From TrEMBL:
<protein>
    <submittedName>
        <fullName>FimH-like protein</fullName>
    </submittedName>
</protein>
<dbReference type="Pfam" id="PF07603">
    <property type="entry name" value="Lcl_C"/>
</dbReference>
<feature type="domain" description="Lcl C-terminal">
    <location>
        <begin position="25"/>
        <end position="141"/>
    </location>
</feature>
<dbReference type="InterPro" id="IPR011460">
    <property type="entry name" value="Lcl_C"/>
</dbReference>
Length: 141
C-alpha cells in the first residue's frame, strides 16, 4: 500500500508543474527552478545534429550564461500528457511540433541520443552524428 501511495504522489507532483514566462523569453519551472529557453534569434528555433546541440547550449547567452542541453528526464518534464499537437505546456510560445534533442545517450550505444517529440509526446532515439537526423534545440539552466 505504501508503494501505491508513493506512485500516486509522484504522478501528482509531475502533473502540477507550474511554469511562468518572463519578458526575457525564459520560462521557469516553479517546482524544479529550472529555467528554459523560449526566445530564439529571429524567432527561428535552431535545428542541428546531436553533438552540435550541446555546443549551441553551452555558448548561449540569453539573460546570462550557464545554459546546457537538458537530459531526457528534464525534457520529458515539459510534456503534458493530456494535450496533443502540441504536447508541451502552453506557456512555451516558441515551439516547433517536432523532435528535440536531450543530452542523454542510449546506455547500450552512446552513438544515439534520446529525443522528445513536442507534437505527439513520443520519446525515441536518434543518431548523435548523422547528416540525415537533425532535431530542434531547447536549452535549460
Amino acid at each position: 500500500m505504501k508503494k501505491t501511495g508513493l506512485i500516486i504522489a509522484t504522478l501528482l507532483t509531475f502533473s502540477q508543474a507550474e511554469f511562468t514566462r518572463a519578458e526575457s523569453g525564459i520560462v521557469t519551472d516553479s517546482q524544479t527552478q529550472l529555467q528554459w529557453q523560449d526566445l530564439y534569434a529571429d524567432n527561428n528555433v535552431p535545428r542541428n545534429y546531436g553533438d552540435d546541440a550541446i555546443d549551441y547550449c553551452s555558448s548561449l547567452d540569453l539573460d546570462g550564461t550557464g545554459w546546457r542541453l537538458p537530459n531526457i528526464n528534464e525534457l520529458k518534464s515539459l510534456l503534458v500528457d493530456t494535450q496533443f499537437a502540441p504536447s508541451i505546456n502552453e506557456v512555451f510560445q516558441s515551439t516547433v511540433n517536432d523532435w528535440y534533442w536531450s543530452s542523454s545517450t542510449r546506455k547500450i550505444d552512446s552513438d544515439y541520443r534520446w529525443v522528445v517529440n513536442f507534437n505527439s509526446g513520443a520519446v525515441s532515439i536518434r543518431p548523435r552524428i548523422n547528416n540525415n537526423y537533425t532535431s530542434y534545440i531547447r536549452c535549460v539552466r
